[in-house]
Amino acid sequence: MNRLVLYGLLALLLVASACSPNSPQPTAYPQPTQTEPATPTTAPVQATPTREGPVTLRIWLPPEFDPESGSEAGELLANRLAAFSARRPDVRLEVRIKAPDGPGGMLDSLTAASAAAPLALPDLVALPRNILEAATLKGLLHTYDSLNYIFDDADWFSYAQQMARVQNSVYGIPFAGDALILVYRTTTIPAPPRNLTDTLSLKSTLAFPAADPQALFILAQYRHLGGALLDEHDRPFLDVALLGELLGYYHEYASAEVTPFWLTQYQTDAQAWQAYTDSQVDLVVTWASRFLKDQPPNSLIAPLPMPDGQTSTLARGWAWGLVSENSETQRLSVELVEFLTESDFMATWNQAAGYLPPRASAMPGWQTNIPTEMAVEILTSAELIPPSDVLNILGPPLQIATAEILKQTTDPLVAAQNAASQLEKP
Fold it and tell me: What's the pTM?
């Protein structure tokens, strides 16, 4: 089928879905449940009312952030949107809920509507970093660079600065962060391991998704050691000597059953976390958001154990993407983004939603069962997870090498050499 015809059909389905009386209708604001003071970082841009009425800003959110979900985070966001509408009566906010990915998700919908039904496009969209990057490379998002948005690098953690940029331009304004952490059970682990030797001495099972095709745990340690992901020609690369050294630790773990072979059954973070919550293990590598949302008893967090004991991790998050091509709605969208990423609101909303604030000025107001000092230490050290295209190439060889070591079927250096050789195959 002709690609243009396909996009047209998809767009018509989108429009039909939006207009169907049986489909969820967008939520319009204001509908405040409490009074919230307006704290804009810049003076409001005065929209020019037209004969058609107020300017409408269309916002796409994933179900997780639905303002009408009934959750504390949903209520906070609903009130914040209502507060913006109260200070800007010439602007109408319209919220639609869409899955971030998959058939009919945000990326599919943006692609189809951009090609055949531009009027169905939103003005702002909340996207995880990997989809933000994909949408940018497809030409579906607009940069903030020329819109006088003050993206103060000094106030945003380094990983958030990386998350905001695609090809050296700002295409997303971060509003929620996440990072890989270590969670341990305080009733059996007196102090968390800070390095790989400490981990071995605990003689307790450390769970992580050893069959994760992205191999994020070992990748975080490899990156901390200075391991390059690309060679001088920007081709995917693995340092055999460094990877072999790292796999040597895993070989010791496997021999001592700190990381037993059955971890190779775990492909996802959820599976490793289930082993922890079922008390099968007392140490687990997981995402901070999972810990914050579940809050298991007798549990604390610590940085990932690294060879040298220094703090380092990989991070990800969500950001506001700008879709509108209209200069007026772009300016209004930027004003709304500033309002939604103001430090005090970001602190309380991230606390309720179970995420880490991406800007340092929000940390004093973020009060959770993770000590603020610990969170700042982790976030300050965090590096954005590599792009999806890099993970898709490097992840599988790293995962295979890790599995071989945990099953004790090969030597660490041989496993490292095999992983590197996989990158050379067409």
Answer: 0.88
